[in-house]
Request: fold
Amino acid sequence: METSRNNRKLVNAEITGVGMYVPEKVLDNHYFETIVDTNDEWIVSRTGIKERRKEENGATSDMSAKAVMDLLKSKNMDPEEIDAIIVATVTPDMFFPATACLVQEKIGAKNAWGFDLSAACSGFLFALETGASLIQSGRHKKVVVVGADKMSSILDYTDRNTCIIFGDGAAAVLLEPTEDLDSGYIDSKLHCDGKGAEFLYMKGGGSLHPCSHESLDDGYHQLVQDGKTVFKEAVKGMADISVEIMERNNLKSEDVAYLVPHQANKRIIDATANRMGIPLEKAMLNIDRYGNTTAATIPLCLTEYYRAGKLKKGDNLILSAFGAGFTWGAIYIKWSLD
Ligand code: COA
Reply:
């Protein structure tokens, strides 16, 4: 058995459970035809989205708590076993306390600490890296990583460029240690570049533009996007990083069971799969039903594909995302559940 310098056993992190929650309320493309100048054909052909969900009864912590409870139920696990909760979100219930604290209380995770992490559409990958490090340190045995966003709370429903794209949802994974260093979390490459800040943002409510009558009048509390620029950067960012992580792990296209891409636009996903040389059916998809749920897209995909019996132990998965910041990255995991 390998040991680290302080005699702790070297362990890797692996995903040992999944769970999800999506709201019941469905907004299809025809609904948007009634509120902005758009149509179903444009939305489907330019984005791949047919419908998305809207949370009407709760906040991000409520959606997150439901996703974690779903995970715990599927594992028959007691919430008191959780050591830490990380919530990736850009739509926290409020600035503080952290959404993770509210989730901790809602699910009764008495022995957990936790915090929120903000990396927009790359949030789940950044949180997974952080959670995996807590496990690899040897100091945590059960870490829950949540990706959750209530995008409907920050959308401008008069802006056809953005309101049709996003949806609400939450999903969670459980990370636990494994002594098999060739299983679970194998490699990752994450980036951020603040030069991208001007292309996708919500200006208001922070220390730069505190809430005021003017900030409300100027729409500072809603998401703004330069779609064309973000699209161009996302295609390059996601494709380059996915190919890089394949190459440095000597993975050929036939070795990859699935690309697990952030769901921003079906055309970005297709371009990434093409660059990786993998067929489109090997790219996980839920954008048609949920739109872009920001931090939730990737764990929602993992939960649905696993529960549909499409994943098997040992499968090579490349998780890949691009988002506001800019932030982007890819993570290579060997799936651990049968
Ligand atoms: N319905 C109909 N027309 C629309 C529309 C809608 N919902 N939204 C935009 N348009 C119009 C534009 O106003 C523009 O019209 P104009 O030429 O008269 O000005 C035209 O369609 C083309 O706009 P463009 O931005 O070039 O469209 P696009 O093909 O790039 O698609 C997005 C727009 C937003 C779908 C696309 O740019 C995108 O997906 N961007 C990245 C999104 C993303 O990844 N965001 C999250 C971070 S990961």
